[in-house]
Design a protein that fits this description.
Length: 61
Amino acid sequence: MRAKVAGHLAAHPGAEFTPHEVAKVIGHSAGAVSNALDRLAEAGEAVLVCDRPRRFTTTAR
């Protein structure tokens, strides 16, 4: 799951996504995607750029 989410973020460098937006694209639940995004952020592979709504982007440029 994390690999799919990271792949989506990496495919769109500089773009910001909510967990729901990523979930629609990769076909998994928003809750599962949210958890994966949290883990990616903890690992330094993604960045939480906005708290409300939660939006993430990749760290790779």
